[in-house]
Amino acid sequence: xxxxxxxxxxxxxxxxxxxxxxxxxxxxxxxxxxxxxxxxxxxxxxxxxxxxxxxxxxxxxxxxxxxxxxxxxxxxxxxxxxxxxxxxxxxxxxxxxxxxxxxxxxxxxxxxxxxxxxxxxxxxxxxxxxxxxxxxxxxxxxxxxxxxxxxxxxxxxxxxxxxxxxxxxxxxxxxxxxxxxxxxxxxxxxxxxxxxxxxxxxxxxxxxxxxxxxxxxxxxxxxxxxxxxxxxxxxxxxxxxxxxxxxxxxxxxxxxxxxxxxxxxxxxxxxxxxxxxxxxxxxxxxxxxxxxxxxxxxxxxxxxxxxxxxxxxxxxxxxxxxxxxxxxxxxxxxxxxxxxxxxx
Length: 344
Description:
The structure is a single chain. The chain is mostly helical. The chain has one domain (about 30-105, about 170-335). Helices cover about 85% and strands about 0% of the residues. The chain has eleven helices and no strands. It has helices at about 5-25, 30-55, 60-105, 110-130, 135-150, 155-175, 185-225, 230-240, 245-260, 265-290, 295-340. Helix 7 (about 185-225) packs antiparallel against helix 8. The longest helix is centred in the last third of the chain and has 44 residues, at about 295-340.
């Protein structure tokens, strides 16, 4: 009557709701990141909980969950004592020796000019910052308080993971109950199952790849006689969680430390290239197996876009988010193709 198309109005209303939902997600991205970390930790512990649940008596999973957390915390404590102390020692040694090593480093060719310019830049920046040191103290105090408050999440994330592991089935059923029986409910059920497999494979594979990098780098650099081998191995393992960009950053830092330490960087470069070929073409495809099938260009786009939206957290979550979008798209496409009548 008023010339308003009902379908256009419905699409406009839907688009408005989607935009508002995305805006709300952006506003609460910090909280969502904490819950996402808890969910990924739950996926990491899920196989251990299931294994213990088979052997422990009782109708609930609580005893298996409690024992799994005890084992997990025990592994972290042992690793912290055996490896963390060496990492701290090597980090302290590197922090103390790096200025002198960098100053005495004589790079070949044009790198010498780059080094001279870098030293001059660092010295000028330090001189400028030193004059404003008193003005920076309040900012440093606020930053310290922010870091201290963030440490609370070390306790909150395992607690959230406990609830995810304990009530995952109930949460899934309650979510499905929001949709009436029919093809749409079947589609959502299939999407949830695919996302479950995707996150399970991705998280476990990522942790195993990180451990593989740490082990290979630590052992390889120790055999080469390279200083700070455990610290550099840990750096490579941690940066493995940032897709594509993280390993490149780790390799750059490792080569720089090797160069300023007076080592021949060619064996280090050959080792790094050989390991990346082994991991990218043999180990990673074997561990990932299914789910994360994204083109490298799409991965790079996700990494940079995630960094602009949510910093380091965005780079870490970019690949699983894109992979989940792909899973939803593939499932919807299959359902539509299957719903079309066969051509006689």
